[in-house]
Write a structure and sequence with these properties.
alpha/beta, globular, 2 domains, 14% strand, Aspartate Aminotransferase, domain 2, Aspartate Aminotransferase, domain 1, five-stranded antiparallel β-sheet, binds pyridoxal-5'-phosphate, 419 residues
C-alpha cells in the first residue's frame, strides 16, 4: 500500500533510534524475563491444566479454571486473594468495585495523586451527581494534589490521611490523561507506609492500569492493600476478550466480590462460558507483550523528540507505565499522528479517527485503535482529549515490529503535514 511507504530519512532515523536504545531494550527484556518466570511459577504452583479451560455456564459453581486463575493473579500480584472476572465491564468497573466495597456511609475516600482518571470522576459524585455515585451513599471524597516536582506530596497526604473518617487512600499508578508522571512501586510503597503510620485503618487502593509488569514488583508487594485494573490492558496480554481484576488483602477482595455480585454469593457464582483459556493465555503472554509496548514507547519518544515535539517520558527515562505522551500544541498535528497510527493498524486501517463524545469523558476524545479487541489499549493505540495542549497518549503495541511501523507511519504523516 503506497501510503505506508516510509521515506528514507525516517527509516534511517528509526535505525538510529534502535541503536541508541539498545541498552534500554535489554533492560526491558530483563524485566520481561523476570515477570515471565513469576507468571510461570504461579501457573505451576496452581497446577494449570487443560481442565482449567473448559469453563461453566449458568450459575458457574465450581468453575475450577476461574478459581485457579483468582489464585494465580493473587500470586503474581503479591496478594492474598484475587478476583478475575469477565463480568467486570472494564477497568473503571473493577476500580469502582474496589472503592465502593472498601467504604461505607460516613467514610471518606482520599485520592493521594490528584484528580481521579476521567471515567472515575463520575464515581465520586463531584462531577455531575450521577445516581449511585459515592456521594449518594453518604461517602465523602477529598484529594491531595501532586507536588510541584510532579511527585506525590507526602506531607500533604499524611496530613489529609490522618482524618478519622478517611477509610481508603487511592493511588493512581499511571499518568492517565494527566500531565503528571507515573509512580514507581517504590513510591507507592512509601505512600502506603506513611498512610499506615497516621491511619492504620485506611486501606490503600491502587488503580493499577497500564502499570502491570512494567517493573519487577507490583503495588501489593510494596504495601498496597488492593489493586484493580483492566484485562484489555497489560495483564490480558492482548488476548483476553474483556474483563477486569482485583487483587489484594483477602477480606477486601471478598468484600469486592460481594459488591460485584451479591452479598453472600461473591465470587462463587460467575460462569466463564468457555473463555478461561484466553485469560490464562493472555496472562502468560502479558510480560512479553508489555515489553513490546515499552519498546514501542521508547522508539516513539526518540523519533518524536527528534522531530521537535515535547515528549514524556524521554526515550532514556525510567518508565513506570506503558504510556507515551507527545505534546502537539494543535489539533491538526495531533489528528495526523492518530491517523498515522490508525492507518498502520491490523484492523480498520481504512478508517479515519474522529473526535467524539465518549461516555464518561467531559470533552471530545479522539482514539486511534485498529485493534482486535474493541478499545484494547495494550494494542497499539493513541488517544487524546481534544483540549489544550493537544497531548497524545500513545500506548501498546502487541509486537515491537508492528509498533515500530506504526510510529514511523505516524511520523511520516506529521512530516508531510508540516510541509
Ligand atoms: C484505562 C484506565 C482506567 C480504566 O479505564 P477503562 O477504559 O474503564 O478500562 C482507569 N484508570 C487509568 C489510569 C486508566 O489508564
Amino acid at each position: 500500500m503506497d501510503s505506508l511507504i516510509i521515506p528514507e530519512r525516517l527509516v534511517a532515523l528509526g535505525s538510529k533510534a534502535e541503536g541508541e536504545a539498545d541498552l534500554i531494550f535489554k533492560e526491558i527484556g530483563a524485566v520481561s524475563c523476570f515477570n515471565t518466570e513469576k507468571v510461570l511459577k504461579a501457573f505451576r504452583k496452581n497446577r494449570v491444566s487443560d481442565a482449567c479451560f473448559s469453563g461453566t455456564t449458568g450459575y458457574g459453581y465450581s468453575d475450577m479454571g476461574r478459581d485457579a486463575l483468582d489464585r494465580i493473579y493473587a500470586d503474581v500480584f503479591g496478594a492474598e486473594a484475587g478476583l478475575v472476572r469477565l463480568g467486570f465491564v472494564n477497568g473503571t468497573h473493577a476500580i469502582c468495585c474496589a472503592i465502593f466495597s472498601s467504604l461505607k456511609q460516613g467514610d471518606v475516600l482520599l485520592s493521594a495523586t490528584g484528580p481521579l482518571y476521567d471515567t472515575l470522576r463520575n464515581v465520586t459524585g463531584q462531577n455531575t451527581g450521577n445516581r449511585g455515585a459515592l456521594s449518594d451513599y453518604g461517602i465523602g471524597y477529598a484529594e491531595v494534589q501532586m507536588g510541584e516536582n510532579g511527585l506525590p506530596d507526602i506531607a500533604g497526604i499524611k496530613k489529609a490521611a490522618a482524618g478519622k473518617n478517611v477509610k481508603a487512600v487511592f493511588i493512581q499508578r499511571s499518568r492517565g490523561y494527566g500531565d503528571r508522571k507515573a509512580l514507581s512501586c517504590g513510591m507507592i510503597g512509601e505512600i502506603a507506609e506513611e498512610v499506615k503510620k497516621v491511619n492504620p485503618n485506611a486501606s490503600v487502593i491502587v488503580d493499577n492500569c497500564y502499570g502491570e509488569f512494567v517493573e519487577k514488583t507490583e503495588p501489593c508487594e510494596a504495601g498496597a492493600d488492593l489493586v484493580a485494573g483492566s484485562l484489555i490492558k497489560n495483564p490480558g496480554g492482548g488476548i483476553a476478550p474483556g474483563g477486569g481484576y482485583i487483587a489484594g488483602r483477602e477480606d477486601l477482595v471478598k468484600a469486592a466480590a460481594f459488591r460485584l455480585t451479591v452479598p453472600g454469593i461473591g465470587g462463587e457464582c460467575g460462569a466463564t462460558y468457555g473463555q478461561n483459556r484466553l485469560l490464562y493465555q493472555g496472562l502468560f503472554m502479558a510480560p512479553h507483550v508489555v515489553s513490546q509496548a515499552l519498546k514501542t514507547a521508547v522508539f516513539c519518544a526518540y523519533i518524536m523528540e527528534k522531530l521537535g515535539f515535547e515528549v514524556s517520558p524521554s526515550y532514556n527515562e525510567k518508565r513506570y507505565d506503558i504510556i507515551q505522551t507527545i505534546k502537539f500544541g494543535n489539533e491538526k498535528m495531533l489528528l495526523e499522528f492518530c491517523k498515522g497510527i490508525q492507518e498502520s493498524s491490523p484492523v480498520d486501517s481504512f478508517a479515519t479517527p474522529e473526535p467524539w463524545d465518549m461516555p464518561g469523558y467531559d470533552c471530545k476524545v479522539v482514539m486511534a485503535a485498529g485493534a482486535f479487541i474493541q478499545g484494547s489499549s495494550i494494542e497499539l493505540s493513541c488517544d487524546a482529549p481534544m483540549r489544550e495542549p493537544y497531548t497524545a497518549y500513545m500506548q501498546g503495541g502487541l509486537t515491537f515490529e508492528s509498533g515500530r511501523l506504526g510510529i514511523l507511519n505516524a511520523a511520516r504523516r506529521i512530516a508531510e503535514a508540516a510541509l
